[in-house]
Structure formats: C-alpha cells, structure tokens
Amino acid sequence: MTTQRTLAVVSAGLSQPSSTRLLADRLSAATARELELLGHTVTIEQIELRDHAHAIIDAMLTGFPTGDLARAVDALTKADGVIAVTPLFTTTYSGLFKSFVDILDKESLSQMPVLLGATGGTTRHSLALEYSVRPLFTYLRADVVSTSVFAATDDWATGATQHDGRDDSVNPLPQRIDRAGRALAERVAARENAGPADPFATAPSFLDLLR
Q1: Looking at CB atoms within 10 Å, which of 25, 79, 133, 151 has the fewest?
Q2: Low-confidence stretches of the chain (pLDDT beneath 50)
Q3: Is the distance from CB of 28 to CB of 44 less than 8 angstroms?
Q4: Cβ pair 145, 180 in contact under 8 A
Q5: Distance (Å, whole) CA 54 – CA 194
C-alpha cells in the first residue's frame, strides 16, 4: 500500500548560493528516491533558516515563534523524518542553527528519525558532527541515524553531485549521500504514523466514575 511520507529539511547556510543548502538538497533527493523505491510518496518541506533569522531571534526573546517561523516549526514537528544540515564554524554548528534548535519544544523531536549533515572548509572538521551536532539531537531524544554526511570544499571540486556508478574512490561524497539517504528512508518507512498523543487517553470515562 502506498503511503505518504513528509521530510522536513532544515538548512542553516548563510550565503546564497550555499554549499549547505546544496548538501541538504542532495540528501533529501537521495532519501526521497529510496522512499519511493519502498512504495511511498514523498513531500519535502524546505526550512531555510536564513529566511527566518530575525524571527528566530525574536522567538528567543519572546519565548514563542510567530508567522512563517511558527509554520516552519509546525511542519518540522509533524514530519515523518528530518534532515538537518549546518555549516561548521569554530569546530561546531552555526549560531543560527543552534538558536533554531533552542526555540523548539524539548519533546518535539522525540523519536523523530533524523539525518545529520554538515559542511566546512576542510575534512579536519568532520568529527564535529559526532562530538557536537549528534549529542545535540540525542539530548532531544531524536532517533538519529548512524550515518551522517560531512562535505568539505574539496568534495564539491570534481563536480560530482550524485552517484553515477563510477569509481567512488575519486569522490566518495555521492556514495555517502546515497548511503545516508537509504538509512533515513528505512527508518522513516518503518515509523508508525501514530499522530500526536491524546492527552486524555488514560482518563477514566464519566460512566466509570459514576460506577
């Protein structure tokens, strides 16, 4: 049976065009392709944090998001899976990325399948995904897939942006993107569409109280 799956793709790139957005697009395309192979139709919700930068700061000051930012947060929390990609500055996620995560409800990503990606100048920063970004989403109790993708500037230099079946040793980025997309797709496909929990599900009925 064909089912609908929604992916929320968070990109924290600061420039336009952005290598961070490029990686986010490649990861979402790979995930969508794998989900379609598994028999699902896919909707992708793009959340470009650069467009919400001022609203994110306002939300940090007021305690709640409004307008387009509120709609973006709603799309994120209702998605079946999340792809989150940040540039790395000073060996960690960007301030914009962290500020966006800070305005989310602490339970909003609980058990949510999440694929992590990051971009940076050189591969020496790649471990920041594991010691900085992954613990952030683990704290939120997200279901973070084991495969994450870091793309350095040199990874884009050959122009290979998708896996074409040639020698992956020349540029392993397309292979890593495909592998990560497959891992997230499998996790999303296996996830039950339980919907939001009913806060009154365990409350006794009025008839039971009368008895």
Answers
A1: 25
A2: 159-169, 194-202
A3: yes
A4: yes
A5: 34
Residue 185: half-sphere exposure toward Cβ, Cα within 13 Å: 24
Eight-state DSSP code of residue 122: S
Rounded Cα distance, 21 and 113, in Å: 20
pLDDT at 156: 82
Confidence (pTM): 0.84
Closest CA to 97 of 107, 82, 111: 82
Q: Among 96, 111, 16, 91, which residue's Cα sits nearest to residue 53?
A: 96
CB distance 44 to 7 below 8 Å: yes
Report all structural domains of the chain as residue ranges with CATH numbers, in order of start: 3-210 (3.40.50.360)
Is the CB of residue 191 less than 8 Å from the CB of residue 113?
Answer: yes
